[in-house]
Amino acid sequence: MTATTSTGRRRGRGITTGWSALGFISPAVLVVAALLYAPFLYTIFYSFTDYDGLTSPKWVALDNFKRFLDDPALTTSVRNTLFWVVGTTVVPVAIGLLIALLSFGIKGGTLLRLPFMLPYALSGAGLGVIWGFILQSDGAANDLLHLLHLPGADISFLQQSPYNTIAMIVAMTWQQSGVNALLFLVGLQSIPTPPLEAARLDGASGFRMFRHITWPLLAPLTTVVIGLSLVASLKTFDIVWVTTQGGPGRSSETLAVTMYRDAFVSSDYGYGSAVALVLTLVTGAVTVAYLRFQIRGQEKLR
């Protein structure tokens, strides 16, 4: 009888604790729902409508998506987005890894990494302002190339395609390399000592050590770094809008810039919502595919 009573009391306390926990987390859940989920659901709804923000939304079914596929600017936006994916995923990750390897375990390594870390404190808009000044016609970049008698002094970097996209990718690489180096440095510090000592006893050093020991042990962190860079590159907007606003002639637009222009500049919220939904689906699909590919690769190595 006593055991049954004790069990009942514990169950009662568990139920009370569960309701108390729900009461504590419910405000946060409501805030997240109001600020994230509700706008996303509204975006899905508006993507199937013709809506200018003033009149009532008019249901048009899949017309916005058909218009998206027929849009002449689609090819340019997709091409530039792919440039951003490759340029801001491969190059900053490779440079960040190189910085981490060269500065790890040496005296003054922190000072060596510091110049690469500082640009990450800048926002995308701030980065666009700085590099817009450098790359504008007859700007600092042209003056420097002219002073050094190097080719390219007469190029308008922000006015000619694909130079404008390449120049902005270089600017983003300057910003992102430092934080990637910091992440890889954390990974290097977490590598256990015994495998490294065993490899040294076997005569491994230099590139051989990196290829067979360090790089495989960094694989989980590399998956995270590349994944973050991949998602960020697909959503590239602020630096492009501040630097070129997608011009000239929409030649440097990405999918995110196309979405912003159509929704908030042209007040075509239905079409802009359709572009945003497509961009969300593409980002999610690419991320899932990449993670599944990495997981399968790691399982084969086990």
Task: Please describe what this structure looks like.
With 302 residues, this protein is mostly helical. The chain folds into 2 domains: 2-46, no CATH class; 66-301, Orthogonal Bundle (MetI-like fold). It is built from 13 helices and 2 strands, in the order αββαααααααααααα. It has helices at residues 2-46, 63-70, 73-103, 109-117, 124-135, 140-147, 163-190, 193-201, 206-217, 219-234, 238-243, 255-265, 269-301; strands at 49-50, 58-59. The protein has a two-stranded antiparallel sheet. A hairpin with a 7-residue loop joins strand 1 (49-50) and strand 2. Helix 4 (109-117) packs antiparallel against helix 7 (163-190) and helix 5 (124-135) packs across helix 7. The longest helix has 45 residues, at 2-46. The N and C termini lie far apart (53 Å). The model has no long low-confidence stretch (mean pLDDT 86).
